[in-house]
Batch of 2 targets.
Target 1
Amino acid sequence: MAPAQIARDVIDRLESGEFAPGQRLVEADLCLRYGAGRQIIREALQHLNAQGIVALEPNRGAHIVHVSREDAIMTLELTELLFGLVSRSAARRIAAGADDSRLRAAIQELVQASQHEDRALYMRARRHLFAALSHIAGNAELSRIMDQVRVHAMRAQFGFADFRRGHAQELAEIGRTVIAGECASAEERARNYVRCISESLQQF
Amino acid sequence: MAPAQIARDVIDRLESGEFAPGQRLVEADLCLRYGAGRQIIREALQHLNAQGIVALEPNRGAHIVHVSREDAIMTLELTELLFGLVSRSAARRIAAGADDSRLRAAIQELVQASQHEDRALYMRARRHLFAALSHIAGNAELSRIMDQVRVHAMRAQFGFADFRRGHAQELAEIGRTVIAGECASAEERARNYVRCISESLQQF
DNA sequence: TCAACTCAGATTGTCGACAATTTGTTGACA
DNA sequence: TGTCAACAAATTGTCGACAATCTGAGTTGA
């Protein structure tokens, strides 16, 4: 199993609640779990560290970082900005003739997923939509940062709230606005979408 | 020498022109250069890879990524958003009573540095100012992303243009606005500052 | 009782060696 | 001459072993 896959799996387990914040990740344990050498595990841990998901203290190993309430709020602010930027950029590129097939496919997948009550399915479809937008926006740097922030937004219960409030329609609509190439509108809708979820989260 | 330091040094050499985009980074060479084992070098390379500075192809090694004109423009857009967010957040925290000593020190350092004609000195002072703002904003995630984007902004010649246009005064003024706790004003000034430099860059 | 010390156990950090992969070159053959 | 297989060189990928460091339990002495 490759380091990136292991990192991905750790994130999944974190989102599913199998790994808890503060929990230590001991290299030897992970070696057994994934049947990999320590080298591999170390690379995976560094990958996670670079994303800010685990903290790596010298000679003391790795542990999953806590997410405070304030962290969550700021992550959502960040998400609002970035999702807005990505949507606007993607719309601009499509208006300039970029390929939109991947985005169309992602929208369809999302609509289908929203008809079932399967959270995992919905989450994956949503991830694909974001990936398609990042891809069309066409900037590797932005894509990377979006990826990182998305994981943190998930940890702030963003995805859960989104699923419960049934925002799939709005998300699909944002995708269609991007396809239509309406930059300003796409950005505004995207930001508003994040803001709604953010507010519903802050009610707790 | 620790992996993080090596990564930092590579970035410095990249900014100084000693390393060029597209250049391959062979592990054995770096081992000799830094007198470190391959393990260490590998970690440094992964660190750089996580920041999007080098690309890491399986079995084919690492090379420094190119920055296209479009990449640069989008990075500057991203910088504008993030610098605005950081400034606003920091101002809000200071208005709520957070410690501003580090920011004051950074401003003073910047003012002093701007009186000499030393680019390296100015760059460092500027980095400290950004670090102080990120620190006061108080979100580790945001700090990390700011760091990453700042390096990319540098590669887009941002720092160079800043130095040449003598924007130190404006930067210091932004810092003072943050200390005054004026959220909206701080954000607007910060974004405007990035926009100015971005425009002067796009004239080429 | 409690602070300081010692020492085993657990864990991470680093090195050297070898396996796997890619790349460039040589030479045979149509 | 051009193509292709085989080989050699360079480079990266992975493993095992040992060194360095941290943690906590037990011990000693005031």
Note: Chain A touches chain B through 28 residues (CB under 8 Å).
Target 2
Amino acid sequence: MTRTPRERMVLSAAQLVRIQGVAATGMRDVVAHAEAPRGSLQHYFPGGKDQLIAEAVTWAGDYVARRVSRVAAKIEDPTPGKLFEAMVAHWRDEFTAQGYDAGCPLVATVADTAATSDDLREAVGKAFDGWQRPVAAALAELGVPGARSESLAVLMLSALEGAIVLARAHQDVAPLDTVVAELRPLLDGAVSARRE
Amino acid sequence: MTRTPRERMVLSAAQLVRIQGVAATGMRDVVAHAEAPRGSLQHYFPGGKDQLIAEAVTWAGDYVARRVSRVAAKIEDPTPGKLFEAMVAHWRDEFTAQGYDAGCPLVATVADTAATSDDLREAVGKAFDGWQRPVAAALAELGVPGARSESLAVLMLSALEGAIVLARAHQDVAPLDTVVAELRPLLDGAVSARRE
DNA sequence: GGGCTACCATGACGGACGTCATGAAGGAGG
DNA sequence: CCTCCTTCATGACGTCCGTCATGGTAGCCC
């Protein structure tokens, strides 16, 4: 489980971005948080801050994609609505347990850098794609018709991200519960019937 | 239409936050963008940057609330789905006309400051409330039962905010169109029937 | 053993930041 | 005319930023 200093720096960058955003997260903050040697920065990330943040974003995208696949496989008697509920539950649990300090690193990166760095914006775009893919695949496997599963995956990501922002602003998980309650019937109604 | 320097500074702060986020937006940037005298900063905003950003957030909340009411009154043969479509269309039009540089200032402020400034976080929370209120009121007037109208307003805000983030990351309005297409039947189905 | 590469340490540089101190215009009211 | 208050101007301070230059260690390979 002991990670290399390089990995620790990427993970720390992702965590700090979740809390403070990109601009407010300094490289010195990252090495301190990662308990990594400062001299390693220019060695592992010759591309500077943009490279470090880009790797953090990519890591976050991979992480959430893996988690969706894992969670989708673990639901018993799964339906699209239950999948969405499980995705949201992860955030609900974290907010109630850890507080509302940390949000989604992809949202923070878009908000801070979409207009100033094409590289970072594209990294976030790919991370979102990598997240959307397993969601759409899980929906398809549950019986949602092909084209529809992509649309519903976009809706799920959008509603979740938006509800996360609302929940942080209000310091209350209610928006998360609301979007789940309102979306579940719609999602479950999208399976092409014909079952059992 | 000529605004006072103070108003111009608040508006410029809001616009710059939409593009760069809070941390990357300097006070010198704001006065330059507002073509305002730098010395006025400490005079009009003795509370410093936090006060300036808080006023920008509050202004943005008031602005979007007014616009919702105005747009809701202008739709012919209105339905909840059409209201949502009209709200999203504003962003769709701006993205296609102006590009994807500017996002929602409330999202940017939450992402950058939710963990570090209670004042700013609360200002954003109130701004979201001020936005949600006219949406829920419009839904109620269209025949959506009371409790449900609040829930659907939360869903609409969440889906819109999330879709804005996705659209910026992908430089494509498709997520906006997708959430409208998927949510319209749900929204229109929520009116308590009994009509004509 | 010499050389090469990977990794880490440290200090400096130039610039930008938010804030503040100080002071000057300029009109209003006495 | 003189004073007061709003508004603006300007320069400075201390701090932090991202980046870079330089050099030191440690291990592997010939």
Note: The mean pLDDT of chain A is 94.
